[in-house]
Specification:
Length: 427
């Protein structure tokens, strides 16, 4: 272990052991905070220890926190969303903001589908019936999943995995991507022409937009009124996307049969908050992305970014917030370019590898995908665009491109041996 020479704030009481090892190995001392610290508390501790980095999980990082330490050079998000970081303030001060894309994608998708199934099968009400000592009295509200119309508000990595998981149930899926983003929809996912069309389609609306000023309360009273009577809403994205007062009114009126919420506009919500105990709400405490595997992924990817930044190494480019949308891939069988953010990164160990070894390869590393949605990785064009694929994929692409090396940039002529060897160790 290196001698401690960097101070890192962790805005939560715990961090996965592999991530701790990365930071301590880089000479960092970690200063933990209680759950959900206030912005003032984060700023106070940052100033007290003159932190070099903030690893934020449960506390906001404001301009005041950035000004509190002259040594602060990076804020790394323990997760994907960066809505709790003042990005403009960071940009103005030259402070890097990093995140962990793909680190909890499958976990959130699984949680989303579990919520859909629980509402369709009325698990909450039936469980309360049994707990009260009753049996099957009255009409059941259990519905079939086959043929249910699912609307996906957003079609990034998480929504893609939701579609993949929902497909075997026979759900009819429609998706609406973010404006200005290129999305390659699978054949069995219909493209919504606009928000109104998506809402009218959706017997279940699953929210997957990021939280931005443009998406604040995009699901308001008018939007909810367009959904079919007796429909459901699922939100595993961010609470501020849905107008919770309008949602409460729609549930009370019976227009919505139920809502499943893993996120709230204020977290944690106050003890007396109405949606906490609403009989038509299935609520979980923002844990959709908190599985054993995803906690390691998020912590390790954030720690890798911090360690690289503080020790002068190349920061894994997957974590650069301002790189978003600047890289592209060519999907196999098409002539279309799609942004890096559309890539459905695999889960757990491969993602840890993706973060950990990028600084050695000096290239954007794409682990071999486990789903057909990312079959573009076997395309020789992926290599021509600078994508580096792993193990058997590397060998297959190499065999396809030897004859066309003269058309490839010179810097892509050497395969990153360390990446292939490291991938073999992980596998």
């Amino acid at each position: 272990m290196s001698a401690a020479r960097f101070d890192v704030i962790m805005t939560a009481p715990r961090l996965a052991e592999p991530a701790v090892a990365v930071l301590e190995g880089a000479g960092c001392t970690i200063h933990y905070m209680p759950p959900y610290p206030s912005a003032e508390a984060v700023a106070a501790l940052t100033g007290e220890v003159q932190a070099h980095a903030i690893l934020t999980r449960q506390g906001p990082v404001t301009a005041a926190a950035m000004d509190a330490s002259a040594r602060l050079s990076i804020v790394a998000r323990h997760g994907v969303g960066v809505d709790d970081v003042d990005l403009e303030a960071a940009r103005a001060r030259g402070i890097m903001v990093a995140r962990a894309p793909g680190s909890n994608t499958r976990a959130v998708a699984e949680h989303t589908l579990a919520m859909i199934l629980a509402m369709a099968k009325d698990f909450r009400a039936l469980g309360e019936t049994i707990a009260a000592g009753n049996w099957r009295g009255g009409a059941t509200k259990v519905r079939d999943i086959m043929g249910l119309r699912l609307g996906l508000l957003g079609f990034g990595a998480i929504a893609r995995d939701v579609a993949l998981l929902a497909r075997p149930f026979g759900m009819r899926i429609m998706a609406l991507g973010r404006r200005g983003a290129a999305h390659a929809l699978p054949e069995d996912v219909a493209a919504a022409p606009d928000l109104a069309a998506l809402l009218r389609h959706s017997e279940v609306l699953s929210v997957h937009f990021p939280y931005t000023p443009e998406t604040h309360h995009i699901i308001d009273a008018a939007a909810l009124a367009l959904m079919p009577a007796g429909s459901w809403l699922v939100n595993t994205a961010r609470g501020g996307i849905v107008d919770e007062a309008a949602l409460h009114a729609a549930l009370d009126s019976g227009h919505l049969a139920g809502a499943a919420l893993d996120v709230f506009e204020t977290e944690p919500p106050p003890a007396g908050y109405a949606l906490r105990r609403h009989p038509r709400v299935l609520a979980t405490p923002h844990v959709s992305g908190v599985t054993d595997g995803s906690l390691v992924n998020m912590g390790l990817m954030a720690a890798e970014c911090i360690a690289a930044r503080l020790t002068g190494r190349q920061v894994p480019r997957s974590g650069w917030w301002w790189r978003e949308g600047k890289g592209f891939f060519l999907k196999k069988g098409t002539k279309k370019l799609f942004p890096v953010e559309a890539v459905p990164f695999p889960h757990q160990a491969d993602e840890v590898f993706f973060a950990s070894f990028f600084s050695e390869t000096r290239r954007l590393f794409l682990p071999y995908p486990k789903t057909p949605a990312a079959s573009f990785s076997t395309s020789a064009a992926a290599v021509a665009l600078g994508w580096c694929c792993s193990s058997s994929v590397c060998r297959r692409i190499a065999s396809r491109t030897r004859s066309s090396r003269r058309r490839m940039p010179a810097r892509l002529g050497v395969w990153p041996r360390k990446a292939v060897q490291a991938r073999a160790r992980v596998a």
